[in-house]
Structure formats: C-alpha cells, structure tokens
Amino acid sequence: MRLKRGLSLAQYLATVFAILRKDLAVEWRSRQLLAAMLIFTLLVILIFNFALELDARVRSEVSAGVLWATFAFAGTLGLNRSMAVEKEGKALDGLLLAPVDRSAVYFGKAFANLFFMLVVAVLILPMYAILYNVNLWHSGFLLVVLLGSWGYSAIGTLLATMAIQARSRELLLPVLLFPLLIPVFVTAVRASSFFLQGLELTYIWPSLNLLIAYGLIMPALGYMFFDFIVEE
Amino acid sequence: MASETVSKKPSFLAALNYLSLALMLAATWMVFFYAPREAVMGEVQRVFYFHVSAGWVGMVAFIAAAVAGIIYLVRPDKKWDVFSVAAVEIGLVYSLVNIVTGSIWARPTWNTWWTWDPRLVTASVMELTFLAYLLLRQSIEDPERRARFGAIYSILGSLTVPLTYMSIRIWRTIHPVVIGSGDPGAKGNFAMTQPMVFTLLFSLLAFTVFGVTLLWHRVRLGWLTERVEQLRLKVMGM
User: Which single residue of A57, A80, B114, B122 has CA 20 to 30 Å from A113?
Assistant: First the structure.
C-alpha cells in the first residue's frame, strides 16, 4: 500500500508509533497531565456524589452517566494539554517540518490521547466500584469504554489542534467539542448502562454499531482534515 | 475582488425583496384563512406550516454552508468563505424559528414546552454546533486561517443535519412524522388534507425564496465588509 508522499505503510506506522512513544515519554517524565486528570476526575465524582445524592437506589441507574460525564470533562484537560505542549517552544513546527505524512502525526497524537484516557479509566473505574459498591467488571462495559474513548480522542485531537491555534485556546475546545461529541456520549452512556444492567446483547447491538461507526468516521475525517488544520 | 458587484444592488435582488414580501404575506394568509382547522389540535396546528418550512430552510442552509466549505478547501477563494458564514447565520435564525414554533405547538399538544425527545435533542445540538462555529470564527484573527477552520468545522457540523432529519425516523420519538410514516407512539400526528398539503407547499416556497433573498443580502454584506477591510489596509499601508 502506497500513501501520500510515497511512503510505505510500515514507515507510516513507524511514524505514528514514534509520535505516540514521544508523547508517552514526555508524560512519563513529568506525570503532570495524568496527575491532574486523575485528581480532577476524583473531584468531579465527588461533586456528582453530592449533586445527585448517589445513594444505593439511584447509583445503579446513573453510574454510566456519571462516569461518562466525568471522562468527558477530564478528557478536555488531556486534549488541551497534549496540544499546548506542542505549541510551547514551537514543537509542532518541528513535527511538521519532518518529511512524514502529517496525518501520521494526527494518529500518533490521537493514540496518545486515547492512552491517557484509558489510564485514567483503569485507575478510576476500580475506585468508583469500591466507593459506590457497584460491579463495573463487565467485559462489554469495558469494550464500550474503549470504543467511546477512541471516538472521543479521534475527534478531540482534531478539534484541539484547531482550538490551540485560536485566540481563546483552552476556552474554545469544550465549546467546539461537546456538540459533536453528543452522539458518541449518548450512545456510550446508553450502551454502558445496558451492559451494567445485564441486558441481552440484541438490545445493545444498535448502540455498539453506532459507537463503531463513530469510531471509524471521526478518524477518517481527522485523516482528511488534519493537513488543512496545521498548514501555515 | 468583485467591487462592481458590491457597489450597486442588482435589480433582480430588488425584485426578490418584493417577491419575498408578497409570498410571505400570502403564506400567512393561507395559514390562517385557507388551511382548514385541524379537528383534534385546533388552531395551534396552524404553526405546523411555518415550523416545517423554517426547519427545511435551516437544514438546507447548513448543508449549503458545508458544501461551500468543501469547495473552499479544494479551491481557496474568499467568496466561498463569505457564502459559508452567511449560510450558517441564515441557518441559525431559521432553526431557531423552527425550535421556537415547535415549542409553542408542543405546549398544548404535549403539555410541555420542552421534552428530551431525540428530535428536540438533535435539533438543539445542530443549533449549538453552528453557534460554536461562529465562536470559532470570532477567535481567529488571520482571515485565511479563519476561513479554513470555518470550512472544516462547518463540514464536521453538517453531520448533525442528517442526524436531525433522521432522528424521528429511526428512534422512538413522540415527535410526529407528517410526511412519511412515523413512530406509532408519536403524539400530535395527523393526516393532511388537500388544502393542508397545498398550504404547506406554498409555505415551503415562500420560506425558501425569503431565505435565498436574506442569504443574498448577507453575502453582499460579507463582500462589503471585505471591501472595507481591504480599503482600511490600503489606507493604513500608505
């Protein structure tokens, strides 16, 4: 398979992986972002606890909604930070000068963002399960977390690259992101809730299909548009 | 740039102004006096004609903005950006009219101003998406980048249009589908009689012509703004 600028697929994937590894290495050395996301997530859950009075009767029904709302808020922190890092010291210009397909940069960043979201999920879900005594250990639910986070990162990375070049930056991202995120958010909440209630798979498939479709369309749009967004 | 097109108002546009006025007045007359009174819902059903027409123009305007966005990305020419933002603004106004008239109808029919039905949610998401589009444009100073980002976001945002259109046709909803078959659980459904169909079609025509007229004016305003900007730069350069 030949891609833009005559690079082979192996080289393309190597670029994606290099960007991913760079982002993880940067984060591993500072651990700023993950620490902030984690504490923020816990605080949001705490706020929900008092806002919704999560007692035993209510929490089994609203857990999926609370968790996804928390992920959505924490995710914007991650997205903003991941692009702000590139803007500082003009690191993004350096990346764009590299003789590689630019969409590889997009996928590298998107996978890094996905990774951070999943780390937060892996740490938060057991904590939530313990704090509220709900069983979240359900393979279907975990699959929904994976699919939803991927859709989120795919569109989020694209819009964060846009927002970071605007005047109001961090302010702009949630405004741009959340309207386009609502389809994935609604379906993820619905699918999660269905899995946690132990419904049969026939009821859940439509939601899963939507999540998969979203997870394919958004990266495709990112692949097409990333070049236009970073071009000077 | 097209300075001649800017300087004087085309006579066809002037004609469109009067045509829009006439059509809108005629449509209003038809809605109140020609269309029959719906048996179950009564007078409030008359809001339906403008509700559907406004929704139609709103959706078409958003799609037009996205198409202009695609053309801009392929061939970056300022005029497509001017057209795109004009179409979004027109779309926002019409969609808002659509939501407000729907709300007025829902109060007696569903016994509430608002309910979190899929159609109402998708319609408001569509409205919010294009409000975000305006916010995005506002916070970018470089005109070329503003146009490019605007084009991309209008294309992304246009995904909400088919979603809104389809929402009453694929999900369980209480929103009626008057054209085609809808959810049997929908409240406020009715079968249109011949004069009703005729009134609806006429309203659609009137709203479309009025929308095109407004769009044209808005595009001209965009050009004028562009021209003022160029002159300002010229003066400041000297």
Answer: B122
A130 burial level (CB within 10 Å; 0-12, 13-18, 19+): exposed
The Cα B53–Cα B225 span in angstroms is 30
8 Å CB contact of B140 and A167: yes
pLDDT digits (tens, 9 = 90+) for B42-98: 888 899 999 999 999 999 999 999 999 999 999 999 999 999 999 999 999 999 999
Give the range of the structural domain holding residue B114, as residue numbers without chain letter.
Answer: 46-229
Neighbour count for residue A199 (Cβ, 10 Å)? 13
d(CA A18, CA B43): 66
Q: Is the ipTM of this complex over 0.90?
A: no
Determine the distance in angstroms separating the CA of A222 from the nearest CA of chain B, rounded to an integer.
Answer: 10
- In this structure, how many other beta carbons lie within 10 angstroms of the beta carbon of residue A200? 8
End-to-end CA distance of chain A: 29
Query: What is the per-residue pLDDT across B154-171, written as a single tens digit (0 to 9) for each?
Result: 999 999 999 888 888 777
Structure tokens that stand for B221 in this block: 């305003």
Answer yes or no: are the C-beta atoms of B89 and B62 closer than 8 Å.
Answer: no
What's the mean pLDDT in A73-77?
91
Phi then psi for residue B44, to 5 deg, are -65, -20
Chain B hits for A176, Cβ within 8 Å: 132, 135-136, 153
Q: Beta-carbon neighbour count of residue B38 at 10 Å?
A: 18
Is B19 inside a domain boundary? no
- Distances in Å between the Cα of A213 and the Cα atoms of A43, A71, A139, B10 are 32, 20, 20, 47
User: Using alpha carbons only, what angle is made at residue A150 by residues A144 and A151, rounded to the nearest 5 degrees?
Assistant: 90
Q: With contact defined as beta carbons under 8 Å apart, do A215 and A149 qualify? A: no
User: Based on the structure, what is the number of domains in chain B?
Assistant: 1
**Token pair for residue A217?**
């369309």
Counted across chains A and B, CB pairs separated by less than 8 A come out at 56
Question: Residues of B173-208 as b/e, b for ≥16 C-beta within 10 angstroms?
Answer: bbbbebeeebbeebebbeeeeeebeebbebbbebbb
| Chain B, nearest residue to A166 by Cα | B140
Give the number of other CB atoms < 10 A from CB of residue B44: 15
